[in-house]
Design a protein that fits this description.
The chain is α/β, with parallel strands linked by helices. Helix content is 46%, strand content 12%. An eight-stranded parallel beta sheet has the order 1-8-7-6-5-4-3-2. Helix 3 links the parallel strand 3 (76-80) and strand 4.
C-alpha cells in the first residue's frame, strides 16, 4: 500500500478562544479557510501551538471535527492524539480517525520522563500503531516534554508498517541526519521548526511542521522551492531572513507571540488559554518590529 506523502509544509494550527475562554470554532474555521489559500500540504490540529494540553478530550475532538469540515481533501488533516497513557492515546487516536483525520501525530509521554526508556517508548508507539486505523507520525519535542526520542528507537519504530514518519523539534541536525540514514527510504522526517528547515532538508527531511507556517507559508514555500531547484544560495538567504521572526513566535514569545502575530496578519489569534498569558503591549510592539524587519508586514 502506498504510504501518505508528508512532503511539504504544515502549520500546527492555533486554537482560538472566545472572551469567556470557550472554544471559538467559527474563528478556527475562518482561519483555516484563509490558510486554504496558502501553499500548504495540510494542517496539524492539536499540536503544541494548538494548546492541546489546555484542552479537554472533547474539545480536542471538536477542533478536529471543525477543521475536517473546511479542509479540502487534497490537504492532509493530522490530529494530535498523544496522551500520557498508551490506553488513552489509543482511544483518542480511534476517535480522531472516526472524525476523518488522515493521520495522527503522537507526542512522547513526559510526566514519568525518567522512566521513558527506549523500551517503554517503543512499546508505547507500537501499541498505538497496532491499534490505529490511520497512519502514525512520531513527535519528539524534548523542550516541552523533557523526553528526547532516541535515534536508535526511531530506526526500530520506522520498520512498523503503520508508523510513517517523525516530527523532530529538537533541532539536532546530526541526529536528524542519522535518523534519515538509518530508517527505510519511505520513512519521512519533518523539521519541527522553521529555524532549521533548510538544514533539515539538506540532510533528507521532506518538509516541516512549523509554527511560522501559520503566518509565513509563502516565504517558507519559496525557501522549499529554491532548495528543490538546487538554488542553495537563494534558499540560504530565505532561511536567514526567517531566523529572528521564527524565534519570536516560538522560543521567545511562545504561543502568545504566535497568536499576536496572527492578529497582525488578519487571522483570529486572540488570547491563549490560561495559565498562558497574552503578550504585554511592549512585547507586541517588539514583535511587530521583528515582523517588519523580516519583510513580512509593512
Amino acid at each position: 500500500m502506498t504510504k501518505l506523502s508528508l512532503a511539504g509544509l504544515f502549520p500546527p494550527v492555533a486554537t482560538p478562544f472566545k472572551e469567556n475562554g470557550d472554544l471559538d470554532l467559527d474563528a478556527l474555521r475562518t482561519n483555516l479557510e484563509q490558510l486554504n489559500r496558502e501553499p500548504l500540504a495540510g494542517y496539524v490540529l492539536g499540536g503544541s501551538n494548538g494548546e492541546f494540553t489546555s484542552l479537554t478530550i472533547e474539545e480536542r475532538l471538536e477542533v478536529v471535527a471543525a477543521a475536517r469540515a473546511v479542509t479540502p481533501r487534497d490537504r492532509l488533516l493530522i490530529g494530535g492524539s498523544g496522551l500520557e497513557s498508551t490506553r488513552a492515546t489509543m482511544d483518542l487516536t480511534r476517535r480522531m480517525a472516526g472524525l476523518g483525520v488522515d493521520a495522527v501525530m503522537v507526542v512522547t509521554p513526559g510526566y514519568f520522563k525518567n522512566k521513558m526508556t527506549p523500551a517503554a517508548l517503543e512499546a508505547h508507539y507500537r501499541a498505538v500503531a497496532d491499534a490505529a486505523p490511520v497512519p502514525v507520525i512520531l513527535y519528539s519535542v524534548p523542550a516541552n516534554t523533557g523526553v528526547d526520542l532516541p535515534a536508535a528507537a526511531v530506526a526500530r519504530l520506522a520498520t512498523h508498517p503503520n508508523i510513517i514518519g517523525l516530527k523532530d523539534s529538537g533541532g539536532d541536525i546530526t541526529k536528524i541526519a542519522q535518523m534519515v540514514h538509518e530508517t527505510p527510504d519511505d520513512f519521512q522526517v519533518l523539521a519541527g521548526s522553521a529555524g532549521f528547515l533548510l538544514a533539515a532538508l539538506a540532510v533528507g527531511a521532506v518538509g516541516g511542521v512549523m509554527a511560522l507556517a501559520n503566518i509565513a507559508a509563502r516565504p517558507l514555500a519559496a525557501l522549499l522551492a529554491k532548495f528543490q531547484a538546487g538554488d542553495l544560495a537563494g534558499a540560504r538567504q530565505a532561511q536567514l531572513q526567517l531566523i529572528e521572526v521564527n524565534a519570536a513566535v516560538t522560543a521567545r514569545f511562545g504561543v502568545a507571540g504566535l497568536k499576536a502575530a496572527m492578529d497582525l496578519f488578519g487571522y483570529r489569534g486572540g488570547r491563549p488559554r490560561p495559565p498562558l498569558l497574552p503578550l504585554a503591549e511592549e512585547e507586541t510592539r517588539v514583535l511587530k518590529g521583528i515582523l517588519e524587519k523580516a519583510g513580512l508586514i509593512n
